[in-house]
Amino acid sequence: MRTRTEPASASLxxxxxxxxxxxxxxxxxxxxxxxxxxxxxxxxxxFFPAWSHVQEYLFFSLFAxxxxxxxxxxxxxxxxxxxxxxxxxxxxxxLLSVPFATDxxxxxxxxxxxxAKVLLFYWTVIVWxxxxxxxxxxxxxxxxVVALGSLSLSLYAVPDFLERGGTWxxxxxxxxxxxxxxxxxxxxxxxxxxxxxxxAWAANGGARMTYAGIAGLALLAQMLSxxxxxxLALLAQxxxxxxxxxxxxxxxxxLVCALLIVLLLGWLGALGYHQDxxxxxxxxxxxxxxxxxxxxxxxxxxxxxxxxxxxFMTRLGDHPETMHARGSHNFFxxxxxxxxxxxxxxxxxxxxxxxxxxxxxxxxxDHEPFRxxxxxxxxxxxxxxxxxxxxxAMFAGSLACLFWLLLGAAVAQSRGPxxxxxxxSG
Length: 426
Prior knowledge:
Blueprint: H1 23-45, H2 52-73, H3 84-97, H4 104-133, H5 139-163, H6 182-202, H7 205-224, H8 228-245, H9 248-270, H10 275-278, H11 281-299, H12 310-316, H13 322-325, H14 331-339, H15 341-361, H16 369-388, H17 397-411
Helix pairs in contact: 1-2, 1-4, 1-5, 3-4, 3-15, 4-17, 5-6, 5-7, 6-7, 6-8, 6-16, 8-9, 8-16, 11-14, 14-15, 15-16, 16-17
C-alpha cells in the first residue's frame, strides 16, 4: 500500500505475471484482478438500494469463481481473526431458534440473508489478501469508491432537499437518498464520514482536499436529513475517537459542540422554529413499541418468536402503539425478540469484537498512515452504526452489505507482505 510519500497513481494496477508463468497462472492472476474490480463495483452499488439484485447476482457469481480459483491455486481460505467464533455462534443460535419462530419459512429465509452478508465479509477478506499477493493496489481504490458513493448521495440529497422546499427552520421536508429515505441517507453518511476524515488525514495535496470536501458534504447531508439518531451516532463516533486516542480535549470538544447545538435548537424552539425537531413524540412512540417488545422478550427469552423484521408486525401489528411506529425502531431488541436474549448477546459480541479488532489494527506504531487511518475509521464506523441501530433497524439490505464490506477490508489489513506476495502492503 502507498504511504503519504508515494505518488498518486492508478489505484487498480496488477503486477504482471512472471515471464515464465504458465497460462493457468496468468489466468488466475487475471481472475483475481477481476475479483478486485468486482469488489469495487459491489462497494459502489451498496449506496444505491435499487441495484441490490444486480449486486447480489454479481457477488454470488464472483464468490463461486473465487472459490474455484482458490481451489485450483491451492490457496488457503483460512485467516486468523477473533471474529470467527462470535459469527459462528450468532449464525448457529439464530438457526437453532428457527423451529420456534412464528413463521418458520420466513425466519429461515431471513437467516439465509444474514449468512449471505457474512459470506460477503469473508469474500472481501479473501479478495483483499489475494490482491496483495498479486500486486493489485486495492486500498486507495476502495476508499475512493466509498468516497464516490458518499459524494453521489450528497449531490443528490442536498439539491433534492432544496427543490422539494426544504428549509433550515424545521423538518417537514428532509434530505433523503435515492430509492430510499432520510433514515438511509443518515446511516450512509455516518458510516462514510469517519472514513472520509481518515482519508483526508492520510492523504496529501489535492487528495486531502477532495476527501475533506466530500466529508463536508456528507456532514451537510447528515444535518439536512434532520435525523436525531444520526446526529447522536456522530456524537458517539467523536467521543469514541477521543477515548480510543486518549485525547481528552477531543472528547471535551465534541461534547461542548453537542451542548452548543442543543442550546441552539432550544433557542430556535423558543423563537418558534424546529418545533417538530424538538417534539418528543417520535421518542414516545419508540418507547411504547420497545415496551411491547420487552414483554415479548420476557415471555420468550431463549428462542424468541422468529428472526426477521416482519415478525414484529406479525406479532404486534394489532396494538395501538404500532399504528405510528410502523416498525421495531431498534435492531437489538428486534434480534432479542426474534431469537432470544442469547442472540442479542452474541450480536453485541460480534460488534464489540469488530470495533476492538479495527482499533487493534490501527496501531499507533504503524508506519503506514493510510492503513492505520482506514482501520481506525472503520472501528468508528461500527460504533456509529451500532448507535444508529439502537433507534431504527438499519442493519439490513445494502447498508448491511456496506458494513460487512468495510469490516472485511479492515480485517484484511496486515503489516508487511503476506507469504507469496509481491511486496506490496495493505
